[in-house]
């Protein structure tokens, strides 16, 4: 079921091409709904944005625990049972990213003329704020502040600034950027769908197959003879594909299925994590990571369906956290380290450990929100080619329907 997304497009978007049939010679199948529906309103998938905020806060919670437990920051061991699970926020991010990319750019599939706009939207979202903090971090390290020993070799700097991996384990000054390396690989693979609809589907399917063979089938095949994969076959890439599967499922099945998906996903997540080892071991267990991908895909699918079915109205602060999730992700580690360092210098032992933990976590998240409001958001507004009313990068827009089923038209061949 989950890998049916190879023939997926995007949900009904005003102006999208209406051609429902995919033709592979003898094999033909329709993406057209069983009945005609009329869009009645335009709305945002707020749950996607809110889940991005929760994912960012989970990662911040995890790093608050990790950093405060270090001897140089006091060796505080508190809330570890809960905070140590926050590493799965990264997994959640990846699945959400796969959902958003297909949702936002499904209408571009097969339309090679939109490739430039696709890359502009993706790059303008990722690079500017990242470059600012990367450069600031490198300058501070060179002046003896914070982390020492930053690799300034040309290959390392190229990997860090371009986010294209040209070495097996690039020494990234901003450690969280390892996720961005994977994100950029996914953007490149998705671009093949935009350039060539059918060939892109084949490439995406072969990529998924190679990832699964490389990581989950014993004995694990070694593709080194074909050349270095530089992370292209990492099991983490499977999360993007499950995110695309969630997008396809959420826009094809009736919203009445939402509670089932949501409850099942949450139950699977609790079960999976109840027997999971610590983060250091879990991140080296491809079967466990694949299980988590299924859990998060089901949760996202169910949440989107439930929002449509029940008309959830989510608080503005939760949407703000979602909008600020990228900034929170980039700056939280530095903020945690800075506050923990100040505490060690001026207040070690004077602040109760529970108060310190909560305060450090809150400051880290707040710092990310401020960076979003006063740096990231203005930069994005300057770089966008169209008014914000027409391009909502962080929260994709979809046409609502009277029926729970949404039209899914865009992968069919164009005529003429």
Word description of this protein:
By secondary structure, this protein is mostly helical. The protein has one domain (2-401). 58% of the residues lie in helices and 5% in strands. It has helices at 46-68, 80-83, 88-105, 115-142, 154-162, 178-195, 197-216, 238-250, 258-274, 279-282, 286-310, 316-323, 325-347, 353-383; strands at 21-24, 27-30, 39-44, 397-401. α1 packs across α12, α3 (88-105) runs parallel beside α6 (178-195) and α9 (258-274) runs antiparallel to α11. The longest helix is centred in the last third of the chain and has 31 residues, at 353-383.
List the helices and strands and how they pair.
Blueprint: E1 21-24, E2 27-30, E3 39-44, H1 46-68, H2 80-83, H3 88-105, H4 115-142, H5 154-162, H6 178-195, H7 197-216, H8 238-250, H9 258-274, H10 279-282, H11 286-310, H12 316-323, H13 325-347, H14 353-383, E4 397-401
Antiparallel strand pairs: 1-2, 3-4
Number of strands: 4
For the biggest sheet, the summary is: 2 strands, antiparallel
Mean pLDDT equals 80
List low-pLDDT spans: 1-43, 387-416
Strand order of the largest sheet: 1-2
- Total number of helical segments? 14
Shape: globular
What's the short story on this structure?
By secondary structure, the protein is mainly alpha-helical. 58% of the residues lie in helices and 5% in strands.
